[in-house]
Amino acid sequence: MLSLPLLDSSELSKWQKSSSSSNFSSTSHNSENSMIRALHTMAKYPARQHALNVKKHLQTKIKDLSNHAIFVSGYTNEHYLYSDTAKPFRQERYFYYLSGSNIPGSHIFFDINKEELVLFLPEIDYDDVMWSGMPLSPEDAHAKYDVDKVLYESDIDNYLTKYDTNLTTHISPVNKKYSNFLRQSDKNFFYALDEARLIKDEYEISMLRKAAAITDNSHTAVMSALPIETNETHIHAEFVYHSIRQGSKHQAYDPICCSGPNCGTLHYVKNDDTMEGKHSVLIDAGAEWENYCADVTRCFPISGEWTEEHLWVYETVRLMQSETLKMIKPGASWDEIHLKAHKVLIDKFLEKGLFKGDKDEIFESSVSTAFFPHGLGHLLGLDTHDVGGHPNYNDPDPKLRYLRLRRTLQKGMVLTDEPGIYFSPYLIELALKDPKQAKFIQKDVVDKFKYVGGVRIEDDIVVTENGSENLTGITSDPHEVAKIVQKGLAKDKSFFHNVV
Ligand SMILES: [Mn+2]
């Protein structure tokens, strides 16, 4: 059915073995990079299979697809207003899923009946060749991408006019001129696209695995370089520097690099505060590989020595993670797994005296959301918060309101498991003002933990046949983490490559 085979399983497992080590040495990066490049020449991004996946899901919603086609446009290069500087290019993800192409200004077309996939390239702009070089020819593009034909944009009209319905994601400046032939934002089409992207194939998992391996090394680099990290900016710089060195030009999202009480702000991206006088660091950062994302969080003590409070919070979060990781398998409810994390938190808070009262009443009151306000995890793929999770941000249960994945787990889903405990003065204040929650909080005990700010541990997980596989290789063992930090601290500043 495929024009080219997917990865040969023996080749894949060979590569998987080599990438699973989080050995922090430049030789291992280089050999991994050349291995993944070799994979690229062996197998193409499985765009045809992806189009067939979309067809399969569309068939369950639209009975007669005989005169239907799919037409999705990629993004184009855009300039900032009043400037000739281009915005950073990020390919449209539905387009990429169906084409595997990063060429700006392209379109992908799929005749559902004939199962023919056509890539349309933008016309050559000869004025631009001097600046940007010669674009890929249709012949080279045909060899590179898993499509049946490659044509130029001038052929699009001939295709679109033949069909009663050309389903598209949205009308954009790139495809506005064809808007008369396009049906945008069809609910069934988005349903089919999202269901297709929900389950990752071997090729996609190999990309996610590579993004995770780069991310492991970059986190290790951050933990190992405390002598040159005195401001949150240095943490950010260290992570991005090591990602780019490994071939990951783009981050999956803006890194969250915080120290001390800043760790209590969930999406803190200022990343510019001094680390002097602080105790803890939280870094949530992930590299991207061929548009596939990693999303990993690690926490460590700046001095290399855990304080009693920091370690207790850390161990509690780690228990929330290990208890929930155990439950991940096909057929399991992610709602239930998420609520299990709340239950672990409540048990430990009662044990330590941060909460008082009856554990079932505490659970019902949702007071635990003052300390663990976000969801346990989300789908991961071409987007960091990947499509198809069916969140309900109006859920009356505050414990479930921010859970981005509300589905039964299936083999091939990739998701994050990222419990956290935070001491956000704002959220604690809100809970203390609510008599239904305040009665369970022992404020004097909670106050002792505020300097920690927050702890989150986040790993990237594939749902397998019988359970799960953790793509994240970097340790989360608090003693091993402390050792990595201490080993770095023992080095002189001049050991590190830094010019300022
Ligand atoms: Mn995440």
Notable characteristics:
Creatine Amidinohydrolase, Chain A, domain 1, 500 residues, binds manganese (II) ion, metal-binding, disordered N terminus, single chain, 2 domains, alpha+beta
Helix tally? 17
- Give me the CATH fold name of the largest domain: Creatine Amidinohydrolase
Percent in strands = 5-15%
- Spans of at least 5 consecutive residues whose pLDDT stays below 50 are 1-29
Instruction: Provide the helix percentage.
Output: 25-40%
In total, the number of domains comes to 2
CATH architect. name of the largest domain? Alpha-Beta Complex
Give the number of DSSP strands.
16
Bound molecules: manganese (II) ion
Fourth-tier CATH superfamily name of the largest domain: Creatinase/methionine aminopeptidase superfamily
Q: Whole-number average pLDDT?
A: 92
What does the radius of gyration come to?
Answer: 25 Å
User: Can you tell me the CATH class of the largest domain?
Assistant: Alpha Beta
Task: Give a quick account of the main beta sheet: strands, pairing sense, barrel closure.
Answer: 6 strands, mixed
What is the end-to-end distance?
56 Å
Structural class: alpha+beta
Protein architecture, described:
- By secondary structure, the protein is an alpha+beta fold.
- The chain folds into two domains: 45-79 and 86-197, Creatine Amidinohydrolase, Chain A, domain 1; 202-495, Creatinase/methionine aminopeptidase superfamily (Creatine Amidinohydrolase).
- The chain contains 17 helices and 16 strands.
- A six-stranded mixed β-sheet has the order 4-3-2-1-5-6.
- Helix 3 crosses helix 4.
- The longest helix is centred in the middle third of the chain and has 22 residues, at 202-223.
- Mean pLDDT is 92; it is low at 1-29.
- The structure holds manganese (II) ion (MN).
- Manganese (II) ion (MN) is lined by residues 295, 378, 416, 418, 458.
- Residues 45-179 form the Aminopeptidase P N-terminal domain.
